[in-house]
Design a protein that fits this description.
By secondary structure, the chain is an alpha/beta fold. It has 20 helices and 15 strands. The chain has a seven-stranded mixed sheet, with helices on both faces.
């Protein structure tokens, strides 16, 4: 059996904002692929870019492990991998070059690779896995081991490769896996859990990640689905609970993040999941992602609470119904508020993903979103601007407006990549204004409780109060700057040009 070195190109150090946050999670996609190879008897080694110092660490791993095949298998459960940040793409190119310098067959897989297979083949990759990847990787590695001819390689489904004459061939697509329980669990034993635990130390808890599903069946027109399309498949509640029991016993995390696009699309699944956790004592506080409308099914929130959901992140996106409808979101602003109140009534915290800059969004629409945040004051927020990704209806509508820069450099970029309602500088300043207002309001609410016991204050509480005062004092100036940026000359895309037809 061939010796395969498997890694990925997401380096936390290349993203200064997230490196400073120090909340790293192991690359589940890579760990699933490695476990699948190992289950078939292949010799494997693992390179974890997440906490690596630089791309040069990959070269060291190549020399130490002396593999016969090099594989970059990106974590398709990490939304930042799907966004194809330019710093990570450049890292992948360098890693491909390092593998090719050592004469190794090089295989790459991931969202960016699927969208831009020709680009990765041009940069030296021998094979690009299109879509999900695990089954294609197994079949391809077996053929490479015995030196199969080109005709056999071209019969592998879900593959892009270059013929000797330079022609790029994309083979027939491979159906996605439906029986997710047939996959081995991620290869947790190859992860340096101690380094991850140490990185989390400043947060006073340690978190690991899992997935229960693959894909999303909904139709938000800005959401890219290069790996699973509209398919949605789920592990059994028992299999998920068993893996949780293993993690709890072996690594003792204080918290889990379920990285699913949507966890528990059926309320019966969540109820059975809670039953399994009760039966095996495997419950661990967790965060998950969901939709406001799904949360309002009668049994969903009680079951999440029983399973020990700590916080649920909702894709709120906007406080303007006009914008939600333009996005084909399929939810109502009123549902966001109702789901927030019901989660809190069951002791579950709530957080909002917010998206600004969708075509047609006006200052009034922005203010509706800010009003939603002020009135509901979620336990956390995440802010982004609309991001055109290949394969989406949104991308097709604005692709003629994209410049040479079609991707962000890193997660802090917040560049408006198309001719959005306002300029990039406006959205970067809006990010500052929203956070100043939100964080200071959150601390003010918490302060009322802290004042009941001033003798019990901790250093972090003093720091938060100091930050609150700074944010409130500096907020008016930040708001004036935002208004000035809103008046800069700009020709936005009209909403009518990008709204999908029924």
């Amino acid at each position: 059996m061939a010796h395969v070195l498997l890694g990925q190109s997401y380096f936390l150090r290349l993203d200064s904002k997230l490196w400073q946050a120090q909340q790293p999670y192991p690359p589940l996609g890579s760990l699933y692929a490695l476990a699948t190879l190992r289950q078939r008897g292949h010799r494997t080694s693992f390179f974890d870019a997440m906490l690596a110092a630089s791309v040069d660490d990959w070269a060291v791993a190549l020399d130490v492990h002396q593999p016969e095949i090099a594989v970059l298998f990106e974590d398709n459960f990490n939304y930042l991998s799907k966004m194809s940040l330019l710093k990570m793409r450049q890292a992948a190119f360098q890693m491909i070059a390092q593998a090719k310098q050592r004469g190794l067959p090089t295989i790459v897989a991931g969202a960016d690779m699927t969208d831009h297979a020709e680009l990765y083949l041009q940069r030296g990759a021998d094979f690009v896995l299109l879509g999900e990847g695990e089954e294609t990787l197994l079949e391809l590695v077996a053929l490479l081991e015995r030196g199969a001819p080109s005709a056999e390689l071209e019969a592998v489904r879900g593959l892009a490769l270059r013929r000797p004459d330079g022609q790029v061939v994309r083979t027939l697509p491979r159906p996605v896996l439906r029986d997710l329980d047939s996959l081995p669990w991620p290869a947790w034993d190859v992860v340096d859990i101690g380094r991850y635990r140490a990185a989390w130390r400043k947060h006073r808890y340690f978190s690991l990640n899992m997935v229960t599903t693959r894909g999303c069946p909904f139709h938000c027109n800005w959401c890219a689905k290069p790996i699973w399309g509209q398919k949605y498949n789920s592990r059994s509640p028992q299999d998920v609970a068993d893996e949780m029991a293993y993690l709890k016993q072996t690594y003792k995390p204080d918290h889990l993040w379920f990285m699913d696009d949507i966890m528990g699309i059926r309320d019966a699944w969540i109820e059975e999941f809670a039953d399994c956790l009760d039966a095996n004592g495997a419950a661990i506080p967790f965060k998950s992602l969901n939709r406001a409308d799904l949360l309002l099914r009668g049994r969903t929130i009680p079951a999440l609470a029983r399973a020990r959901a700590d916080i649920v992140w909702m894709g709120a996106e906007s406080g303007s119904q006009k914008i939600l409808d333009a996005m084909d979101k399929g939810t109502q602003v009123e549902q966001i508020a109702e789901a927030t109140h019901k989660l809190r009534a069951h002791g579950v915290k709530v957080a909002f993903f917010l998206q600004f800059g969708y075509p047609g969004e006006t200052r009034a629409d922005v203010e509706l979103t800010l009003k939603l945040v002020r009135e509901l004051l979620p336990d956390d927020i995440g802010i982004s601007v609309s991001y055109p990704l290949p394969g989406t209806p949104f991308y097709e509508r604005v692709r003629h407006e994209l410049s040479d820069k079609a991707n962000w450099e890193d997660s802090e970029d917040l560049a408006m990549l198309y001719q959005g309602p306002f300029r990039t500088e406006f959205y970067r300043q809006l990010h500052t204004v929203v956070h100043k207002d939100y964080r200071s309001r959150k601390t003010w609410v918490a302060l009322r409780g802290w004042l009941r016991n001033p003798a019990g204050w901790r250093a972090w509480q003093v720091k938060q109060v100091a930050a609150m005062l700074y944010h409130r004092i500096s907020l008016p100036l930040a708001q004036r700057k935002l208004e000035a940026l809103a008046r800069l000359p700009h020709t936005p895309t009209r909403l009518a040009n990008v709204t999908l037809q029924a």
